[in-house]
């Protein structure tokens, strides 16, 4: 399945989502692009929220975009906006922060930031993305977990991938992620 690596799992994903309320979304991720980016964006009729580079940028439309498009007398213009930037240090090292918290929970009993049960939705979403790509069909949530398990077991049983043994000359993996 790997696009960039000789691996049997996905390393490049583009997912288009449709929500019951009519909203749409796109999720794009890759471990094969470098330097890559880490960007989270939500756009709506009243503005946009953008989380990137350790800051949250809120852009608010003075007039909702759907109302603007119905009432504007001049084509291709946009409503006036206000922009607010909120620094959020540590966003780019969130994974390291979660791992540190996990270790601290084991050693010191610290409360987990992200307990296991909070991740089940993320696991299901990841499974849906992979399954949808494998069968080339749109899948509704909650997914048919029995069908996914059957497909996964079939992939495992019929795997012909030979894992390459790679000698690692440096056990310092800190360069494999950004802080």
TrEMBL record:
This is Gfo/Idh/MocA-like oxidoreductase C-terminal domain-containing protein. Pfam families: GFO_IDH_MocA_C. Residues 8-131 form the Gfo/Idh/MocA-like oxidoreductase C-terminal domain. SUPFAM superfamilies: Glyceraldehyde-3-phosphate dehydrogenase-like, C-terminal domain. Gene3D superfamilies: Dihydrodipicolinate Reductase, domain 2.
């Amino acid at each position: 399945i790997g696009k960039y690596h000789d691996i049997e799992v996905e390393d490049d994903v583009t997912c288009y989502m449709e929500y019951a309320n009519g909203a749409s979304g796109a999720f794009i991720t890759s471990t094969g692009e470098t330097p890559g980016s880490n960007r989270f964006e939500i756009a709506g009729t009243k503005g946009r929220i953008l989380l990137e580079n350790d800051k949250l940028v809120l852009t608010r439309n003075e007039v909702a975009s759907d109302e603007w498009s119905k009432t504007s007398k001049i084509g291709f213009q946009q409503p006036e906006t206000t922009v607010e930037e909120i620094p959020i240090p540590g966003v780019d090292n969130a994974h390291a922060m979660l791992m540190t918290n996990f270790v601290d929970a084991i050693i010191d009993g610290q409360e987990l930031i992200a307990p296991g049960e909070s991740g089940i939705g993320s696991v299901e979403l990841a499974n849906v993305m992979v399954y949808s790509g494998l069968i080339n069909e749109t899948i509704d949530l909650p997914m048919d977990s029995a069908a996914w398990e059957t497909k996964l077991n079939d992939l495992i049983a019929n795997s012909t991938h030979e894992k390459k043994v790679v000698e690692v000359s440096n056990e310092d993996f800190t360069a494999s992620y950004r802080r």
